Write the structure tokens for this entry.
Amino acid sequence: MAYLCSENFILFIIAIFCSICFSSSTPFIVLHGITMSCNDAGSTFYTSQLSLLSKSKGYCIEIGNGAHDSVYMPLETQVQIACEKVKGMKELQQGYNLVGLSQGNMVGRGLIEFCDGAPPVKNFISIGGPNAGVAPAASSCPYGKCSGAGIYTDYYQARSAPSGYTRIPTDIAGFLNGCKFLPKLNNEIPNAFNPIYKQRFSSLQNLVLVMFEKESVVTPKESCWFGFYQDGTYSQILPAQQTNVYKEDLFGLQTLDKAGKVKFIKAQGRHLEITIPEMQQFVVPYLIDGAATTSAPNATSLLLQKKKKKNCKRKKEEINFTFRRKKETQMAYLCSKNFTLFIISIFCSIYPSSSSPFIVLHGIGMSCNDAGSTFYTSQLSILSKSKGQCLEIGNGLSDSYNMPLENQVQTACEKVKGMNELKQGYNLVGLSQGNVVARGLIELCDGAPPVKNFISIGGPNAGVAFAPACTGHPWCGQAGAVSGVGIYSDYVQGHYAPSGYTKLPNNIAGYLKGCRVLPKINNEIPNATNPIYKQRFASLQNLVLIMFEDEQIVTPKESSWFGFYQDGSYSKILPPQQTNLYLKDLFGLQTLDKAGKIKFIKVPGLHLAMDIIGLQQHVVPYLIDEGAPKNKTA
């Protein structure tokens, strides 16, 4: 019965049903942002959800090795690679739609304007794009503080992708002379105007510009709409229509806007934190042939809907009525995931599932509304047919850095105890730092419902030897830059969450004395062991430990399996079975292992870059009651 209500069965039904209601939708490609890859949760979420919702074939185009090259490879080189890939894809030859995420919009615009002999782009959907540039330099610039004239040197331009779209309002001359990418893209280099760039960009059927209301990465956020600081100042932000690139119509923005082809959309979340309803409303219509019209949602009407609730229902009904009149959209809905899930829910209500509910605890720098957390929660719910929800702690993103871990555990504990649906027990999925909170829930939360299976994905379970950096966000302050023995000071422990699981191999005494969370849940504080912690952790039915082969965040990566550096050394990494935690069985790790309840899983990819196949194989069985396999290591 679990299979009949699984993702595989859903896709089978979709295939049968949609072979009848044929869709003519154009394929689309996704270009991911900086520090992302096509295999990570965010890119997978966008590509898979948009494919399902629009019933269009979607592809994420990888450039180089993904995350690393997105930072270090010059943008002009990224465009050349993307250009050759697109020209080699037969399925795109009749034209395609383009979805850009963050920095991927720069590559997307380059594809449209610079790629000779490429198939035409029909609709360009820009999500959180630094379209008019960023000021000052992007925080990810890898060679120190990239500001002032230095950002426009050949050295930076050749080694830092964000330098190609950094526009310093107080150095426009330097920008035009030294920036290798955005001035060319904007067609604003003096005496170098190219009419072909304008002709190609203005040939778009629609340009959809999605700006996030709580944007903190693209500065100013109005850049997503082609607005920017007035030249010479950081105090005044010009809307797109008052900028020189618009008024002089250098690359066709004014042409598109006057033709009603530019859609200015404001979403409610942080950078790239788009919800599925927003995706359905703002993006999907432009991936369905014939569905996008001049009456499609735009920023002005949608914001008025949110502010004027009395008119909300009427406005939505008008929009939905307009869309329903389109046969193509009507068929696409019937073949969409929403409709299929409706049919499957009726079918599966006859065969109820006995699977336990599960909760997801996200990692540092994440929130329950972002693409990564949404991907894990939604996909695992569908694949396992279990009720899953992401448990938010505080305000999400900033509190994942700033709230002490013991406070995060207390908050999660109270929330879990208040959720009636978990009273009979639940499964727990931890992402990155969320695994430390999860262990706290299991061991420290008095009166909580029992955790059945604990699936740890990319967790710093034995600690990290270097605290994860906190840069580029206003809440980071000095805490994220602290290293050495200062990490165990009361100030840092009280203001910087990763300090609670930072374990410096050359300062074990300081770690045991000053680190507030990890030594406690490891039950390794001298003369302070608590048998209840071990009893609770050892009661798990299964402990699934997933380590990523190309892990770059958790150091050492073996920490995800409870392995770690030998005390006093950064050169030797002990497997979990050789650590004191295991040998002394301080919190039940050895007990679980000898009972065959620990699954040591290694998957390819970077931190949290798990695909749907990996989820189906390694995670889903532990979310289905009686579905867990007996194998120990993968």
Remarks:
- The CA atoms of residues 393 and 399 lie 7 Å apart.
- The chain has two domains: 22-294, 357-463+529-623.
- The chain is about 35% helix and 10% strand.
- Residues 1-22, 137-149, 299-352, 471-485 have pLDDT under 50 and may be disordered.
